[in-house]
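Holo prediction. Input below; ligand is iron/sulfur cluster.
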Amino acid sequence: MNGRDFPWETLLDRLSAFYRTGDWRVPYLRDHAEDPFQVLIGTVLSQRTRDEATDVASAQLFAKYPDPDSLARAPVAEVERLIRRTGFYHTKARVIREVAAQIRDTYGGVVPRSFAELTALQGVGPKTANCVLVFGYGIPAIPVDTHVHRIANRLGVVRTRTPEETERRLAAEVDPKYWIPFNPLLVQHGQNICRPIGPRCPECPIADICATGQALREGRDPPRPADRPRRPASGGARGGRPGTPPRGRRAATTRRRTTGRRPPSRRGRTRRRRPRAGRS
Ligand code: SF4
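Structure of the complex:
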């Protein structure tokens, strides 16, 4: 099934009910308005960083430098200290100060609201630009992070190698009326149920419309990502008879991915995380 035929309305209805986020048809900014500049900088900070580290670093940074002018004038060593926990902080400090200066000098301190202008800023790629449009301005776009990319592939609506490729496909095939709630709901689902390893398919509220959920329920192989070719049935270099489950550490990972069973060490980590836009 491609993105044009997929029942997106059912998916959004079920996920918003499951996570109690309210009616996704209500304009997003009514309850979730964010400062476009802080969305932009926060998204840059989130690159290759855990959500928790991004949240703490962003709060520290914006407490001292909440707008383009103050951040552009901030001492670089101080910025590095405040964002250190996000990793790559030398590069990120340089980039966010430069972006702040560009917004101050070129746009009078107001973050631009077009994809072309946003992606012309240094260090701002498609995902960051789309986050600003959606979470800062309420303009329809589909920010595709690792959660959205992974879930779209598991649903079976795309078979893509990169988030950028997924974004292009989704933007071409999904009706724009679904774009704004798309990222926040799928990210929340990716953090809680459709996790990178050990998706909890038996508990999933959209399992019946998901290609992976349907395949597992019917005892078939789930669709595989485009960047993960099928391993030989013989078990490859590790040996093993055709049709027998693979063995070893990688095999355990494969089983978790396909059965949804979590390893003992991760039990207890089942708390539901608060809703958050996906910018990692
Ligand atoms: S059924 Fe499984 S793979 Fe599909 S969306 Fe739900 S958790 Fe993810």
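The pocket of iron/sulfur cluster is lined by residues 151, 154, 193-194, 199-201, 204, 206-207, 210, 212-213 (CB under 6 Å). That is the main takeaway for now.
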